[in-house]
Amino acid sequence: MNDQFMQAAIDEAIIGRDEGGIPIGSVLVIDGQIVGRGHNRRVQKGSSVLHAEMDALENAGRLTAAQYGRATLYSTLSPCDMCSGAALLYQIPTIIVGENKTFQGPEKYVRSRGVSLTVLDNETCVELMNAFIAKHPELWNEDIGV
Amino acid sequence: MNDQFMQAAIDEAIIGRDEGGIPIGSVLVIDGQIVGRGHNRRVQKGSSVLHAEMDALENAGRLTAAQYGRATLYSTLSPCDMCSGAALLYQIPTIIVGENKTFQGPEKYVRSRGVSLTVLDNETCVELMNAFIAKHPELWNEDIGV
Question: What pTM was computed for the model?
Fold first, then answer.
């Protein structure tokens, strides 16, 4: 797997892990450029809304519909209901997911709304999550609302 | 209409309007108490993710699944895909909506996921949005991704 953008998302996940946070990273790409990058901030900021994808979207700032319409959202983990909803709100046409073995969001629904969603089965992404969940199951459950 | 919590959401919408922002407000209520309140922050913070409901959820801080399971989310406007998704993520069982005439989110899908969603047809909520949309159609379109 040599996609530079998924690697950037993994780099973000590792930054989050090294901050003591939940190791999920994301980047938003438009016209071959990263315009926003982020990682889960639940621990670092006490945030309930800054999942990695939300953090990347927030850091990208206010964009036009035309910009979102050319965007691809990369995430190391299958986007949850909230993050999938954000992609649907802004009509982001393409989502590339590192893995969906440790958690799976509403992928079928997202595809039914016309989004191209691809899962890479990236082993680094799986390992990051498995190591975290084994250490901090309570934090992980909190992050996915269970 | 004399629901104190919808009135609190309307108060938040008016704060947002008076800040020059998009007049949508929200409160999260648990056990008869407001635990988080917020309003749309696109203009005020340059935020693409802090819709009113997201702002209320963020301001409520990190909660447990048991707390979300007793929560009601009030919003002056029908929640968009992102905000609906946040409610689904945290399995908030009840959503009370001021109005859905000026914008309608994925209400049918939200109900299909087991959420009780009630629309009040509150005229103050409609008037706040109509006045804003007439003055700033471009801002409103940006906020709903069109």
Answer: 0.97
